[in-house]
């Protein structure tokens, strides 16, 4: 082993240890390079209009595939996972209106950016001048692909990252930097012959293993789509009014999910006691106050009311 190799290993070990100290559950590192295998997949996905009204997905095609176009001199992608699986869950009975578990607490963008900022600062203090940028689902970065390349799991048939130890209820973030580090290798796919996620999706959004038509996903309808929800989706929402967890809930790997330890993601009391009647009678004032720092504010008050009415009209 050369001196340079030893330095890379020591720096990588420091980064991973500090990431865990900062509250992340997993950290892996991959080389910042062109995603050659992803280029035709992404192009085909866009050509089939699987992004629907999410026009931003077609923007910056070259940057999505090459992190060196996002950060000058980039050499490494540091990927982190932060568990959000809740200990206390909202009721999900046949008559209950449902929220995706990721939306229970504070908007993950705030939480991950703060933790990643502290990690980048620690790297700079330990190593010296390091140029890097933080990414949390807010720029053209293929986060699941980078997490998989960093050995943190594999991309399952439902297109979510799966980790053998804790399933798929994770937020993903990255630091792309100009630091030369020791790189991790990808792990194998452990989905096997299982098709539970494909079989369970009520809108047939998983068109084939590993391919999701985003324009048919309940999460897309309830969050991204700003127009009226298509009538062909009537009766298929299973009471989801913001996001959807069906493909994750049925995944056998999520039997290993463990409750998170991030206080910001805890279900607030004000939301825990919400009834169907509360949802139906929610006012814009209550919406603004209750979801001030929540991912749910993204759908806006009118969007949430639309979702609730769409589900109610399916009864």
Q: How would you describe what is shown here?
A:
The protein is α+β, with helices and mostly antiparallel strands. It has two domains: 3-86 and 106-177, no CATH class; 196-313, no CATH class. It has helices spanning 3-21, 38-47, 61-65, 108-127, 143-149, 196-200, 218-224, 246-249, 269-272, 276-280, 284-290, 300-313, and strands at 26-31, 76-83, 98-99, 132-135, 154-155, 161-162, 170-177, 206-208, 211-212, 240-242. The strands form four sheets. Strands 1-2-7-4 form a four-stranded antiparallel beta sheet, with helices on both faces. A two-stranded parallel ribbon has the order 3-10. Strand 8 and strand 9 form a beta hairpin. Helix 1 (3-21) packs antiparallel against helix 4. It is globular. The termini are far apart. 39% of the residues are buried. [4Fe-4S] cluster 1 binds at residues 191, 194, 197, 251. It catalyses: epoxyqueuosine(34) in tRNA + AH2 = queuosine(34) in tRNA + A + H2O. It holds the Pfam family QueG_DUF1730.
